[in-house]
Amino acid sequence: MVVLKAKSEEVISGLLALGMFHPVDIRHVEDELAALSVFQVEKEYAQWEAVQINVREIARTLRLTPQPNAPLAIQTDTFETVQARLDQVQAKITPLVEQRDGLIEELKTKESMFSQIKEYFPIPVKRGSFYTFLETSVGKIEEKNIPALERSLKDVPHLFYPFNKDAHGKIIVLVIGLRRDRVFLDKVLRDFAWEKVEYPPEFSELPSDVDAKMRAQILDYKERIRKVDLQMQGLARESRATLSQVHSLTCLKKSLLEAKRYSCITEKTVLLAGWVPLEEKAAVIAAIRKIDPSFYVENRRPEEVNIPKDEIPVRLKHNPLLKPFEPLVEAYGLPRYGTVDPTIFVAISFLAMFGAMFGDLGHGLVLVLASFFLNRSAKEGVKRASVILLYCGVSSAIFGTLYGCVFGLEFPSVWIKPMENIMELFRLSIFFGMGFLTLGILINIINALRDRDYLKAVFDKAGLIVGIIYWLAIGGVTKYLVSRAPASPAVIKLIAAGVVLLFLKPVIESFFHKSKENIAMLFMENTVEILEIFVGYLSNTVSFMRIAAYAITHTSLFLAIFELSRALKDAGFIVIILGNIMIILLEGLVSSIQAIRLNYYEFFSKFFVTGKYSFRPLK
Asked: Which of 12, 8, 11, 20 shows the shortest CA–CA distance to 290?
């Protein structure tokens, strides 16, 4: 779009208010505009970023959180006026902070002295100024060094009195000698790694009321710190509105400058380019028209822009039920623009597999209760996790009802009991895996057709030919296992024809792409790829047996816990409780990991194409 330079900042502010504009540098889209100039915003951006850091530091010192989206009563203020406001607040804070830090440091010193007096001076000892002919020293020494130290001091008059032991096992010792022997005493003590303990200078002796005196001093410092804290709390209340406004203003200024960074300028106009969701296009155009009726806009669909599809920003848009599952997809990667969004399939398959592996009515209800507790958190990530935990709990409870299991205790099942139908459970897991892999193949074909890559749709490792071979092979194996009858000649011929077509893939691709690569080398690479495809699909299918394996493990763990509880008799109930807690924590985690793994490695590997950027509109 093209807007008047005089209106550009107002237009950008309107786009920020809508929160639907993801800016791009138009010079990278249109080659003929590569020579246009851009706004120089680096210096101003750095200034506002410094202001934002300053606001956060002040807020941290005052122990407050700036109010988001505060009314911008000071929106027209410049960097200098905003910095002046912060300097005024800082000038009030600095003396209080310095006073508080000083009091805290003195309090620590007093508490340390008090601790030393109680630990090191259980007897009253007067200092050297009182006994003018004596030299006294208190310190720590390793217990093993005491005999050697006493032998070294045997030639000089001295009193050696070990009277306590510190937390590290060192002996606390009082040494008294003649002042004339001070140099010798100091040398001997140093030779034995003597750790001198300084006697508090405030006391020439330890009076009987030293405990009360020191406690009174400590309480006095704490009271003075409390009064400073009250002053800082008052200052925080006084400054909250200003700091919130400055914080909102800095966020707005930084967003404006970020948008300007992508803008190009001429003598009288500004060129803005960016991505807008199709359903929001009309609202964006209407908002700009209100600000600058003379603006010009040209809109194109992504397919009409000369930009690789993986560089088109991706916006995952789901209802509140599916929103919590977006992080599971994003942890693998962003689905590229124009491909099928797998979030709904991940949500359904993850919950189905988790419930099947962790099927227990009681454990499911525990997860539901835990989700309600986590949902009280103020952190958005924890709240999202609580919703997934709620879904997992419901799925576990449903499968627990189907299995007839509550906290390991059995009741009449609605569907199947894992330990009594082991082979049936494995068979169902395999069938689920075959259906899931087939879905991955279908999505890959759809993605290829959307990209108009028809060769990929047919010849890819998850293309049409491989899909047909996969199901024909499954049908032939199933027929043999059920009736011991070999696959029909027609099935074998179709599989052979599919393998031949895969083998001829290099020739077909070279013909359509007019490639001049070495055909022999391509055949060798293709042969290895075909072998990898067959081995890969076999391992992918068998991998789903882990669903049945963990469902059986869940029941087996309970058998072990109940046997142990019977053996311990009186403590059996405690064993059952602890065993249930262990299963919930350990197997709940393992089941989650396995459900995610089957999605990532078996399902996503068939079709997932990664995009580079998520849709991040300036706000």
From this structure: 11
Residues with Cβ within 8 Å of residue 594, at least 6 apart in sequence: 353, 357, 546, 547, 550
pLDDT at 128: 45
DSSP string, 214-235: HHHHHHHHHHHHHHHHHHHHHH
Q: Residue 469: what are its φ and ψ, rounded to 5°?
A: -60, -40
pLDDT-derived band of residue 31, with 50, 70 and 90 as boundaries? Answer: confident
State the chain's mean pLDDT as an integer.
87
Calpha distance 587→83 (Å, rounded):
55
pTM of the predicted model, to two decimals?
0.75
Residue at 442: amino acid letter: L
CA distance 26 to 272: 7
Among 403-417, 440-454, 507-521, 601-615, which is the least confidently predicted range? 507-521
- Ordered structural domains, the chain, with CATH: 1-39+263-307 (no CATH), 42-119+216-258 (1.20.1460.20), 122-198 (3.30.70.2750), 323-611 (no CATH)
- Tens digit of pLDDT for each residue in 389-440? 999 999 999 999 999 999 999 999 999 999 999 999 999 999 999 999 999 9
- Residue 322 near residue 347, CB atoms below 8 Å: yes
Distance CA 448, CA 255 (A): 38
What tokens were used for 364? 């499911």
Q: Which residue, 584, 596, 590, is CA-closest to 400?
A: 584
Q: What is the mean pLDDT of residues 336-350?
A: 96
Start-to-end C-alpha separation, the chain: 19
SS3 call for 295 = coil
More confident residue, 225 or 196: 225
Structure tokens at 425: 């459970």
Burial class (CB in 10 A: 0-12, 13-18, 19+), 486: exposed
Separation between Cα atoms, residue 363 and residue 345, nearest integer Å: 25
Tell me whether residue 1 is exposed, middle or buried, using C-beta atoms within 10 angstroms of its C-beta: 0 to 12, 13 to 18, 19 or more. Answer: buried
Tokens 């008294």, residue?
Answer: 176
